[in-house]
Amino acid sequence: MLPFLELNASLLEEANKVTFGVWFLIGAALVFWMQAGFAMVETGFTRAKNAGNIIMKNLMDFCIGTVVFIAIGFGLLLGEDLVGLIGKPGIEIFTEYESFNWSGFVFNLVFCATTATIVSGAMAERTKFLSYCVYSAVISALIYPIEAHWIWGGGWLAELGFHDYAGSCAIHMVGGISALVGAKLLGPRIGKFVRDEKGKVTKVNAFPGHNLPIGALGVFILWLGWYGFNGAAATNVSELASIFVTTTIAPAVATVACMIFTWVKYGKPDVTMCLNASLAGLVAITASCDVTDVTGSLIIGAVAGLLVVFGVWLLDYKLHVDDPVGAVAVHCLNGIWGTIAVGLFATDTAPGYATAVANGVIRGEGLFYGGGVEQLGMQLLGFASVAAWAAVTITITFLIIKATIGLRASEEEEIIGLDATEHGLPQAYADFVPVVEKYVGGSEVVAVTGETPVAEAIPVKKIPSFAEGEGPKMTKIEIVCRERMLEPLKDAMMAIGITGMTVSHVMGCGIQKGKQEFYRGVAVEPTLLPKIQVDIVVSAVPVARVIEVAKKVLYTGHIGDGKIFVYDVENVVKVRTGEEGYDALQDVE
């Protein structure tokens, strides 16, 4: 029986090895899928005129990253260790194809691409595309692989017992620090901060993202991908299950904490801030997901949910750094918090703790679990070292780019939008681009641009108004409302006898007195939004009746229900018949 049991144990061990080897690659695929999540979050949280540019940047993050990672990055990360600082670059990927560790290559490649992607969001809407490609390549080729070697490639931090299981420090903090430095050197988007004559910031303006559903979809994609991000390196079922639990609890608690805080502070729960909080919780738990328990992940998540709100406020109101998507608050601050949290909440009851000890990548339990300050000190050392490396190297990179090819797009390019100026793309949403109407007269083609006043473009012969008592009074009613209310309004007008109206697409803005709205903690200024303008001229139908019905149809109680304007009309001329005044209106009311 003993040989039989030994054979079964051997088979089970081999089956477990194959199963988790396949899971390792599936996890890598999930991490790659996170690129779509980053693209969606960044696109949704920014303005439509830059959507194509942002998609292109997120695509090139991975593609350029792959090229440079093959050329040098992989060797610096996982090559033969040289004095604990870097891996030895080599060409084994070309010369030893049959025996090369392709699983390790693919897994580390997708992680590398994530680091560069983080920077994109903070520098969105005003960075030159060429410059972006250059610094993305530098991050993937040099900055990330070298510090990641210290932690995961057998470098000096790994030897000392620094623990960063899936990259709170190596990936998210490094990406977040790079984002902070880049956004600071790049400067804010035009109009983000209002300054007085002395240069002091007196006001912060909000630039709401153009597509919240896409941003939310991106967060859900990232959360799904994070199960591979954190769990792919697990080597047994209990370890994997524990990682899944902590990776679920931390972001959930972070989101709840953020919702409650913003509800209390701003009077309403902030949607985009809560989406950021979900990501903040995921970032914070990434370093300790294998060595912490439910209690630890609850606390880590709660702190992350508050820290992300603080981070957004800190950048806007104190540092005056423009970060359109909250990348610094999510990745930098919570990457730091997650790194330190290992030294506070690591526990030997977590299934992954024994594996970490066996691999020599943790020295003891966290401070709150009786382990003293040894592991906490190690985490602080790792944080400080990696942060210094990232800050210095990315600053040098940006300064060189700024001095040579330039870092920032021109003011004109930024105002028009990088889709058009960098990529020749009229707009990312082609079906919604307003078509420029053209009038063809003889051989002449004239573009109707709206720059010529109506009085000059269309000559009008004024007819003297009817003297009092000569004819019925005519009134023009102009209704400005939301686009989606056109059909209900039209049906209601038809029901009271109005069968003719003119409908125009217009842009409008306004802000309700006493009803301040906030976007990510910043007061929202009046913003031009698409509206419908409906013009009706009445004589037989009572004006009061039209207004009463319109108000009933349009009212929701929310800002933006619309406005109704009433004007006296001097005369109406029907072009086809020449009828004037009351007679000209009889087939439309």
Structure description:
The chain is built from 19 helices and 12 strands. By secondary structure, the chain is of the alpha+beta class. The strands form 5 sheets. The protein has a 4-stranded antiparallel beta sheet, with helices on one face. The chain has a two-stranded antiparallel ribbon with strand order 1-2. Strands 3-4 form a two-stranded antiparallel ribbon. Strand 3 and strand 4 form a beta hairpin.
For the record, give the distance between the C-alpha atoms at the N and C termini, rounded to a whole number.
98 Å
- Give the biggest beta sheet: 4 strands, antiparallel
Q: Looking across the biggest beta sheet, what order are the strands in?
A: 8-11-7-12
Averaging pLDDT over every residue, what do you get?
87
- Poorly predicted spans: 433-469
Summarize the structure.
By secondary structure, the protein is an alpha+beta fold.
Defining key terms:
single chain, 589 residues, four-stranded antiparallel sheet, 19 helices, elongated
Layout: helices, strands, pairs:
Blueprint: H1 2-44, H2 51-78, E1 81-82, E2 86-87, H3 92-95, H4 102-122, H5 129-152, H6 156-160, H7 168-186, E3 193-195, E4 201-204, H8 212-231, H9 237-266, H10 271-285, H11 294-319, H12 327-345, H13 351-358, H14 374-404, H15 411-416, H16 418-423, E5 438-441, E6 444-447, H17 454-457, E7 474-481, H18 486-495, E8 502-508, E9 518-519, E10 522-523, E11 529-538, H19 543-554, E12 563-569
Antiparallel strand pairs: 1-2, 3-4, 5-6, 7-11, 7-12, 8-11, 9-10
